[in-house]
Request: fold
Amino acid sequence: MAVVNVNRKVTDQFYRYKMPKLIAKVEGKGNGIKTVVVNMVEVAKALNRPPLYPTKYFGCELGANTQFDKKNDRYIVNGSHDPDKLQEILDNFIEKFVLCPECENPETTLSVKVKSEKISQHCIACGYTGLLDTKHRLAQFILKNPPSSELDTVTPQKGKREKGKGRKEQKTNGEPISPPAEEPESVDRNLFGESGMLPPSEGSSGNLGEWSEDVTEEAVKKRMEDLSGGVKGLVMNDDLDKSAEERINMFFQFVKSKTANGLEGQEKDIIAEAERLDVKDKAALVLAEIFFTENMVQEIKKYRKLFLRLLHDNQKAQKYLLGAFEILVGKSYPDQLMSKVPHILKSLYDNDLVEEEVFLQWGPKVSKRYVSKEVSASIHKKAEAFITWLREAEEEESEDDEEENKNDGVQFSHTKNQVVVKEEEVAKDDGSDIDIDDI
Reply:
């Protein structure tokens, strides 16, 4: 299957982000003519988006109805459409709903807040977080069909029906259509290819009875190389039978040995090992101990990408990071870091390592879990100014959102840039309010 660059403006043949070239087939005649996007599931998987989204985008741009047959992987645009034209429209979809506006990297995820009607985009590569334009018709479709409920359509399981669902599961713009005939459950065409039979191995005469999987040494080696790190991590190992403390110590030794000559290029292996040992949440404690010193404020930015891979959308891991922060401030470097508590917390917030909600939960809770209760109380007292600033910024955003909804104005997300703007506005109105940068 031919592949193309995800961002086709990039002409480098060694560009790492590839996707299958769109394959479209026209079916039917007259008023019943339609275009089936044959490999929509594979394309959508390469873009990390549900296949419904680009299909619906085609319909929006072409003014055509679309049909989604999730169970049988059929994604249809009514009418006859040229594949090259669809590929150009897909490029526009990628630019609007996939590529990061900062680094133009496609390693992005979507997060939908249905109540506030906001769609935020987060880039795992550079850490950018911002809002998508909700004026496009597809944005309204995404709000009604958020990724969390649609991503499972990328690899559907055939032969099983979800509880409570009837026979009419396919949709045409929200309306059910008649389901096509089902294949027997015992048949898995992914194993056989389009011909329905295994290809002959090298040296076979071509007789049906001799057709089997190629088990030559070269073929086995090639298949092992093709295995992704994630699949390799699924191999059963005895390490999971060990206690949590033993696995944490194993992870500590692994990271120390991996980064003996520097961290560059080791991030993915470190996260993969944390997942293999099932210590991804507590791994923040280990990484903080290894990489953070009395220069923690500067080091947060230096090691941001590694910690983002661990902490993004993982509030439990973020809470462990705050535990590590208390250890560093209260035990490891109290003389150097205690006075810098607000600056450290602000740096964790600005670099998207800890979410606002986690900070607000942590703020009022003095605990002796990581340090003594007296030391924890001192740390939390130093953090009061930052927590107060964060809470007031949240209240201002809530008030502004209500006002914007009344005026049908532009909506903004609670990003660090917005908070800075609001902070400046507050400073102009009332000099008595807290300025986090002066703490």
